[in-house]
Design a protein that fits this description.
Its EC number is 2.5.1.18. InterPro entries: Glutathione-S-Trfase_C-like, Glutathione-S-Trfase_C_sf, Glutathione_S-Trfase, Glutathione_S-Trfase_N, GST_C_Tau, Omega/Tau-like, Thioredoxin-like_sf. By secondary structure, the protein is an alpha+beta fold. The protein folds into 2 domains: about 70 residues, Glutaredoxin (3-Layer(aba) Sandwich), CATH 3.40.30.10; about 130 residues, Up-down Bundle (Glutathione S-transferase Yfyf (Class Pi), Chain A, domain 2), CATH 1.20.1050.10. Helices cover about 55% and strands about 5% of the residues. It contains 11 helices and 4 strands, in the order βαβαββααααααααα. It has a 4-stranded mixed β-sheet, with helices on one face. Helix 1 links the parallel strand 1 and strand 2. The longest helix has 27 residues. The protein is globular. The protein starts with 7 loop residues before the first strand and ends with a helix.
Length: about 240
């Protein structure tokens, strides 16, 4: 699809924050120019477009920059409201609940699993595994409440909270492959385990999420630069 209004997305292929924005654009069937960024040597366009945080993703629309993934997803949903599938729920209560759990996924779940990969000792890694599983337990309960017995957090189709949690699934596979850690198991989180299978089969996920090997190689690159790298470079 041709880029609309000079639409550009500055990103990192394996970043969950970028993945969720690309999935939102995919849902809305919006064409854009994707520009991969080197987060070890940040380019002039990224620094100019996001001078406050200097990180990805950044959506550039009609020459204006929109930063922070959740803000971008909501922007995409509103600007292209008449196109594709709605991302945020229409009901005010459901919308507030989706935003609450999205913030939880980013503030509790994401730092926990990143900590598994970045742990300096086995004891620290075990602690982060515990934090990750605890967060998954909370999201298992949230799925039961938000989905109302339907296939996705948003109901019959993928929505806002599905994108936020779904954008992290790639790295759950990296944890399994590289550290032997299984984040979502049917015995502990049956709702989420079934949801994961459905989510991976959606066109939204298939069109955007890279293969696990790409993410694993990026993690190895980060680990080789560990002395000068930060966790933020893994994500944004």
């Amino acid at each position: 699809m041709a880029a609309e209004g000079g639409l550009k997305l500055l990103g990192l292929t394996v970043s969950p924050f970028v993945i969720r924005v690309r999935m939102a654009l995919q849902m809305k069937r919006v064409g854009y120019e994707y520009m991969e960024q080197d987060l070890f040597t940040k380019g002039e366009l990224l620094l100019k477009s996001n001078p406050v945080h200097m990180k990805v993703p950044v959506l550039i629309h009609d020459g204006k920059s929109i930063c922070e993934s959740l803000a971008i997803v909501q922007y995409v949903d509103e600007v292209w409201a008449a196109t594709g599938t709605s991302i945020l729920p229409a009901d005010p209560y459901d919308r507030a609940a989706a935003r609450f759990w999205a913030a939880y996924a980013d503030s509790k779940l994401l730092p926990a699993w990143v900590g598994i990969m970045w742990a300096a000792t086995e004891e620290e890694r075990a602690e982060k595994v515990g934090d990750t599983l605890a967060a998954i337990g909370q999201l298992e309960e949230a799925f039961g409440k938000c989905s109302n017995g339907k296939p996705f957090f948003a109901g019959d189709s993928v929505g806002y909270l599905d994108l936020v949690v779904g954008s992290q699934l790639l790295w759950f596979e990296v944890l399994r492959k590289m550290f032997g850690v299984v984040v979502i198991e049917a015995c502990r989180a049956p709702f989420l385990a079934a949801w994961v299978k459905r989510f991976w089969e959606t066109d939204t996920a298939k069109a955007v999420v890279p293969d696990v090997g790409t993410a694993a190689e990026y993690l190895k690159k980060l680990q080789s630069h560990r002395a000068g790298a930060t966790v933020a470079q893994l994500l944004s």
